[in-house]
Amino acid sequence: MSAPAWQYHEPDHPGANFDALAEIYDRNMQKFRDVQGEIKEILGFLDLKPDQPVLEIGTGTGEFALAAARHCRKVYAVDLSAGMLRYAEKKAKTRGVANVEFLQGGFLTYQHEGEPLDAIVSQIALHHLPDFWKQIALLRMAGLLAEGGKLCLRDVVYSFDPRSHEEFLDEFISKAAEKAGPQFARSICEHVRNEYSTMDWIMRGVIERAGFKIEKATHSQGFFALYLCTKTTNSASSEGNTND
């Protein structure tokens, strides 16, 4: 089914060309973030059972999906980028992980054909959408979850004081260059200039309006945030689940 003419076209997002940069992106994230520590924190909150299915939207290089697959029955790993999916699938084969299904799609277009989900994870991806479309994406995710299902959302979300944004961003980007090199620092500049990262108070609002309770929110460096949430209402839209 084709999307309406008025719907935001996700492949047009202003981020990097991830098809061409999957391996480079993977290396940079490993340098700049504690990826394994982040995975451990999310898995601790999800407390996955062997019979549960999990969806990751914006799976990227697949690091979380492959780790989660060892704790649950199946992971649906979704990404817009065919290059990222190829890279993640290659990782899965190398590591002998067979219960991950790699699927091309986005927040606004993914159509889930399986059973209601127990958990959805999205990391460093929702910022590709303007704020209104973030709300629609979260409503769609709520519609895919079983009652009491869990959402883990990590993204670039600003919690620094915007009145001192110049000093903050100069220092943050300088430190990024020290950790991961000048090319990575330039990518952060491009992110701040062009992409749709929002502020914490806005992100909290769209999460709660989608029918989630934020169980825990943590912020890192004033630039990243993690929201651990539980679906608390059936009022969220069920759009996106073809079984409804």
Task: Give the strand tally.
Answer: 7
Low-confidence spans: pLDDT under 50, at least 5 residues?
235-244
Number of domains: 1
- What is the first-to-last residue Cα distance? 16 Å
From the alpha-carbon coordinates, what is the Rg to the nearest angstrom?
A: 17 Å
Widest sheet, order of strands: 3-2-1-4-5-7-6
N to C succession of SSEs: HHEHEHEEHEHHHEE
Average pLDDT reading = 89
CATH class: Alpha Beta
At CATH level 2, the architecture is: 3-Layer(aba) Sandwich
Instruction: Sketch the major β-sheet.
Output: 7 strands, mixed
Annotation field: number of helices: 8
Tell the overall outline.
Answer: globular
At the fourth level of CATH, the homologous superfamily is Vaccinia Virus protein VP39
